[in-house]
Specification:
Blueprint lengths: L5 H18 L3 E5 L5 E7 L2 E8 L4 E4 L1 H8 L13 H5 L8 E7 L12 E3 H6 E9 L4 E8 L5
Parallel strand pairs: 1-7
Antiparallel strand pairs: 1-4, 2-3, 2-5, 5-6, 7-8
Length: 150
Amino acid sequence: MPGLNLVSVAECFKGCREHAQVSGPGTRIWNFSDKPIELQIRVGSILKKVHVLKPGSSKRLKGKKIYRAYMPGKSKGSGTGGGIRSLVYYYDETCHPYIWIHDTGCDFSRMVKQQYISLEDLRDCSEIRVFRDHQRGCISVRKKSRPDFC
């Protein structure tokens, strides 16, 4: 193959790595519905933070950052289990952070499919699209897997 050498292949990988570093290791969540949605970061039933997405807008979330911000750290030193800090995080250790998709424009008289995004989804997906399913009368989620290459 003329013109293809080790240097050009290395430049391709270098450009791919630089592109990945600029965009970051997060997941972009798009609101393709016709009404605003809320992305509620929750641990169990405890609401920690809310991001409102207007129609057509997006938000990048990073799973590692959410995990570090909302999971209790093991305290070093004394055997008291963390003192005041452990009281702030008084919930079952099996509860992990997740993102609840709250449809602000839904009809609460009908049962709708519950929609949430786990931290594994943020790790495995590069893009998540939220759109309105007019047949069921609720929102639906489509996940785009993170490419293996770049």
